[in-house]
Every structure is written in structure tokens, then in C-alpha cells.
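User: I'm preparing a small set of examples for a lab meeting where we compare how different chains pack in three dimensions. I only have the primary sequence for this one, and I'd like the structure in C-alpha cell form so I can line it up with the others. Please keep the answer compact; I'll paste it straight into my notes.
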Amino acid sequence: MSLANFFNEIASKWQKEWENNKLFEANPDPTKEKKFITVAFPYTNSPLHIGHGRTYITADIYARYLRMKGYNVLFPFAFQFTGTPILSISEAIQRKDEDIISTFVNIYQIPQEEIEKFSDPNYLAEYFKNDMKNTARRLGLSIDWRREFTTVDSIFERFIQWQYKRLMDLGYIKREDSPVPYCPRDEFPVGMHDTKGDIEPEISDVDAIYFPSNNLFFVAATPRPETIFGAIAILINPEADYIIAIDKLNRKIVISKQAFEKLKFQLEIKKEDEKKGKEFIGLIAKNPITLKDMKVLPSKYVDPKMGTGVVMAVPSHEPMHYLALTELKEEFELIPVIKTDELGELPGVEAVGLAQTKNPAELKDYIDTIYRLEYHKGVMRDDLVDLVPDFMKEFVKDKIANKPVKDARDRTRELLDKLNSRETIYEITNGPVYCRCGAEIVVKVIKGQWFIDYSNPLWKASALKSLDKIHFIPADARKEMEKVIFNLHHRPFTRSRGLGVRLPWDEKEIIDSLSDSTIYTAFYTIIHKLKYPAALLNDNFWDYILLGRGNPEELSKTLGIPKDQLEEIRNEFLYWYPVDSRHSGRDLIQNHLPYYIYHHIAIFGDMLLPKQIVTNGFIRVGGKKMSKSFGNIYPLNRAINEYGVDTVRIALTSTSSISDDIEFNANIAKSIIEQLKRIHDFISRILEVDGVNEKRDADLWLLSIFKKYVEEVDKAYENLDLRSVYITVYYTLYETMRDYIELTNGKVNKDTIRKTVSLWLKLMAPITPHLAEELWHKFNNSFIVTEKFPSPDEIECDEKSLLKVEYLRNIIDDVRTLSNELGKEAEKVIIYVNDDEKLKDLLKKAIIAIKGRKSLRDFILENNVDEKIAKKVYELANILPPLMKDLIVQNDIDEEEVIVQNIQFLLSKLDVSEIVVYTSTDEKVPNIMGKKELALPYKPGIAIL
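Assistant: Understood. Below is the C-alpha cell output for the 945-residue chain.
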């Protein structure tokens, strides 16, 4: 049997036992303090992959730890059906999309006959919901499954509609015409979770300036309208396709074909004709401000996909424009527009000369520098007034000339607007971004789009202030959250198609997936008790249950729900809420988590904010973040089948700190599963050993060191420092137990073994509960997952015994370090111990001095000792292991006696044939390799031969 099957059979056995005994069903208990743990629920458009696993297992580990700490823990789960991810997959199946079908068949191993049914989005969502639930069970997640729901359940719809009516009443919902990221194929606004790669489309505005040319208008896009005073030509790509379109003012405008396909969603334009760019070459246009003639010239540097595919050439301030015009060998005028102290009069010309290149990519840094300096430090030139006709001179003189570029930009727009020569157009600045359906996202100005007003200053201020009440893990996530909240604008939150909750006052619209997943964690607390028709649960019901508004007697009469049931539901919510720890991937800091906070502030105020937010890093496969484009999607079920569930639980959560990405690969997983098997076999064997009754130094040491490790692991679990837990519990404690076996020559004390194995299994139970449960039942009948987490107070400690063995282990480490440094294996070890009582006393004083943050100079002056000796002792006090420092201050041992009594242990651990111990203060003993004079108390001089 493979190791994976071995561990998975164990897991399956105990999962059934836990479920049969309803161990994770959580009910209010006024005698116990509660903890409510939630994770961001998954989209049911494909099976769970190992990236999901990291977040869900981390939350489960924390829930299991808190349960063992004595808390009444609720850990629920639900499924996100809302939005376009499901619909996009379903439509891709209908189109027989080869990539999607191949992924399902080859990566997720889904039968072909099932895939054919996925053309029904409801079937697809339900299929993956059930698949995810089975996977969550295989992971051993300690879920209260009575509380599961989907976001298209009718009762959930009533709950979300109630929330949005409240937001509308509070003034946080508005409707206006506005640019939004838009899928031209599916015909609805999109957000991050609607796009391939979960990219949030970012919109920026650009100025489109109209340059008349007889009966045509060339429309040039520019981020720097103020430079139009220096525009002396129109550049187009001669090989690109251009559209002549009629705009709302009946003008014939010229833009690239790609621009037309984008701008038809923003401007009122209609195609009239299509021509190659070269057909426009040689036409004469006019600068609408200077009225100068401008030739229409060809340029290979014009990208028809960028802007409008038409460029106003300003060679004095734009290196690429200067380069394009010089290559045409045309005569052209250079008109300086902006002056700065840092740049010359003609920075566009100078940059090309300095760069000595015609490569646009190599010129980019120069261009960015010019743009930045001219915007932030530039001033418009005085002589611009001379460039414009008389009727504009006063405006230019008063509002543009000699003004900072920051101000002049808006005034230039104002002037162009007066001349009816400008439009604002919008671009996806981080494009191209693609919808899940495959279409490239464009910007559309939607009439009457519904928005959530996250830019509301009072709401924003409350959200920022509320962060003081929330504990963040990792701590730096708070700064990220502050930045995102500060920069949030109003956001479109409805779609015209897809699955989800209908907007209560506009049923043609669906509330999107990021907007219905804001306060839904409150729904977990009561869903298992809502056994009523959805239509019955009106706004008054939710007002009472979630806000405590209204009279339960009157509500009971109105709804026909018994008063005691209403009060029971209300009390269930009050008992569990707020969330004690909210878990998600760190990518959700950009949207879900800020919205989560905003909506809690709006609906509940700041009293029911989550107490803690935990965001973990990603999982990487082959050094890359998982992505279909990289071909490195790793389904969770596959990982469990290959490596066993407890291996997966460790590999996805505990090999790096919570903020770092974790690399998942075969070598790491193999090393983990092999170590788990070693632990399984080791504990199984030692539990069967007939022990002795005598308690020796080794027994007292083992219990004492366990006391220390219990304290460390408890703190690490509390801070979700799972890497430290992993190293201590699965490696350090394993080696510690093996040292104990060697210290006792296999003659273990049965009570000591049972006590320490019990502690060990309890420490591993939150991370590897199945292994812990299996081993626990070798000598117990209870469930370990319901046992109390160990407390240091329940473990006896003998500091002297602890110091003795830690001293021996320190010698072992020193010998191994020396062996590595010398590059030779030791056959014989010489150990010099220093028994000078005065030096021992001085070492204690040095340790106390360092703890008191005293300097070496202060230490020397206080103790009136030789500077050379004091320095050696002070340095030793600095490098001794922390545990030994604490023990040395309160205890004394005879070092030579400890070594002699445990010589067999040292011989075995160091794998040497002989160990010789000398007292360094004895003048008669030889000084081998000069090590005798190096010996200090608790730091022997060591020579290896």
C-alpha cells in the first residue's frame, strides 16, 4: 500500500467517526466563550485547487486549535453561485471551447458525459458545489454542514435584498451615467471576478482632440492636452485600417478600426467608410488652437490599438514624435511649450540625442521622465500667447501662459471645449484584460448604471477608522487595506445577466458576486433555523433578527412565526456574531475585504466588525502562481490522492510564514509524508514498550522540555505562525523523543512516555488531526479533537535535569559544527570542562546584565574584573541558547559528572569510538590543539581527532 493510501484510509475512518458523532455541529452555549471562524467561499465553476486549500486548511487549523483551547467554535461553509464565472464556463461548453473542455478532462479528470451537461449553468454550479463539499470533507475541514447555503437560495436572496434596501436608505446607492469596464460579448459591466486571471480592470480618462481637415476630423488621443500649442503634424499608421465615422454632431471623424470597436461603446458614432491609413497621407489638418496647418504623415510608431490610432505630433516635447518626423526627412517646426529648470528648451530633441537609440522601449524611461518633470515642475511658456489668434489671446494670457502645467491642463481642456474640439474618452490602463468568455474588456459609458458609493467621505472615514478595531495577520495587511480603502471610488455593482440576487427595485439587474458577499457571514449564524417560506421573511423580519428593531410579539402575529422561534433566531445571531477570524487569500485585500468592512459599518455600525482578518500568500507550482495559462493548476483531490490528506494539510499551510507564497512540489510533499510515517511508526512502537517505574534525569528533562515546547507551540498557533508549529511538532519533538530513548538506553518510563506522547499528539491535532486521532486511539477511547489543548501548567518541570540534558545536547551541536568547519568526521572527542566557581558566578552576572541591556563596559565596571576575562564571559552569555541562559542563572551542575554519566548517549549521538573528559583548571592535563585554555563554564573546549 502506498503511503498516500495508508494515510487516506486513516483519514477516511476518522472523518466518518467525527461526522457520525456530530463533533463539529456548534450550538450556542452561554457557559462557553464562542469563536466564529469564516473563510471566503468558493466560486462553483470548477473543482477546488491547492490555492483554495491553503486558505481553507489554515482556517480549519485555527478553528481546531481554538476548539481545543475550550472555545465553542463555529466554522461554517457556503458556495458562491453568483455572477459570470459559472455562466462563462457554461457558455464555453456550449461553444465546445477546446481549452475549457481539455482542462476539465485532463486536469480535473471529469467524465466527458458530465461535461456535456455543463451547458446548463445550474447543473454545472450544483455539480461543482457537491464536488467541493466532498473535497472539503476529504480535507478534514471541521465544518458545521447544517449551515451551508448557496448565493442563489431564495432565503439568501431576501437577506441580500434587505441589505441593499438599507444601503439605499442610507444614501450609499446612486445611479448615474458613468464609464465602466464592459464585456462587449456578454454585454454587462465586469469586475475582477468576471475576468480571466481575476484582474481588476482599471480605467483612466484621456483627451481626444479634433483636428479639422476639409470635411474630415482627425481625432487624436493624448494624455497631455496642454502640449497642443506645439502640435505641428498628424501621424497615422499607413498600414493600419481606419474608419470614417459620423459622430453626434454629424462630423466625419477618422480613427483606427480598433479604436472604433472600443469607442462605439462610449461615443455616439456610426461607421460610414473604411480605408487604409496611407490613403489619408498628405492631407492637411488644422490645429484647432493655433490654426496652423498640419500635414497628415505616416509613422510605423503609431499603434492603431492605442488611443485612437491617431497622434498629434509634438516633437519639441515628445521624443518618439521627434524620432518619427526626422525619419520622414520632412522639414518641421519645433515649438517649445513648457519650461522647467531640469530640462532643456526642447526636451524631445535632447532625449533622442542622449539616448542614441531608435528603439521605443529604450526611449521609454526618457519619455516617462519628461512627462513626470513637466507635469510636476513645469510652467507654460509666456510666448504661447503669440501662437493663437486674437480672439483667444486674452484667455491664453490669463489662464494658461506662465501657469503651472497642473493648472494649465484643465484650462487647455476648457479652451478646447469652447471650440467644440475635445471629448473625454476612456482606456483600460492595465489592458488588455479579457472577460472569462474570451472577449477583450472595453470601457462603456452606461446610462443609469447602479453604483455603491465607496467614495462617500463619511463612509470612507468610518471604514478607515474601523481598522483600529481589527487585528490583522500578517500585520502589514492593514497598510494595504488602508491604501485600498482610501483610493476606493464608487463602483458599479449590478449586471444585466448571470446568476444571483435580483436588485429589489430593478429586477432586470443582478447584484454582482463581490457585492452579495459582504455581510453574508451573518447569514451563517441563522440559516439552519430558517425553515420558513422565503416570501414570509420580509424586511421587518431581518430588521428584528439582525438589528433588534421592532417588537417580536407584533412580528410574530404578522408573519405567523411563533415569538419564541423569532427570539431563538435573534439570540443565535447575537451569540455568534461578530466574526472572530475572517480568512482569505491576500488578493482579496483589493476588493472583497474592504467591501466587507464598508458594509459592516453601514449595516451594523462598528460594534460587529470582524475581530481579526487573516490573509495568506499564494501557492506556487513550478515557481509560478497557479494559472491555466501556465498549465500548472493542481486540483486538491489529486494532491490528496498522491500525498495523503495530512501531508497536504502541512504542505499547503506550514512550510512558509503566512504572508509568504508556498511552493508545492513532489520533493517537499514526499519529505513530509515520509516524516509523518516515521512519527506514526515511532509512536506506535514506543507505546508498546514495557517501561520502568523509576523517574530519572532523562524523564524529568523530557517533561521539562515538553513544558517549554507546549508554551512555544501554543503561542505560535495563536499567532498563526504555522511554520514554527510545523518545525517544532514534526521535527524538534521527534528528535527530542529519540534523544530520550537514547538517554535511557531504551528503558523508558511508561508514565513519561504516555504523558509526553499525549502532549505531542494534542500539539499536532490541529494540523494533522487524522494522524493524531489514529495514534491517540492506541491508548485512549475519547476523540483527541475534543481534548483540551495542553497547558504548560499541567506539566512538571525540573530545571536542573533540564539544564543537564540541554548542556549535553549543546555539546553535541558544538562537536557537529566543529566537524563541519574542519571538514572531517570525528573518531575521538576531547572535552575540556571549566569548573571555576568564580567564572560560573561571573557568567550568571553576565547573563543578568545582558537581560538588563547593560553594555560590556558597564558589566566590567560593576564587577571589577579583568577586561579580557570579562569580555570572554560576556560574549559567551550572548551566544548561549536562550533556554540555557535562563537555567544557568538559577541552577548549578557538575559538568564533568553530567558528561561521564551520559557518556554512552554522547558516544551514540556523535558516532565516535572514544570521548575523553578533562578539567581545564587541572595544570597536569595536556592542552590538545589549544582547546584547554578555551574552556569556559557551560562552554567546554572541544578537540576532535
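A couple of notes for your slides: Residues 549 and 720 are 38 Å apart (CA to CA). The mean pLDDT is 94.

User: Perfect, thanks.
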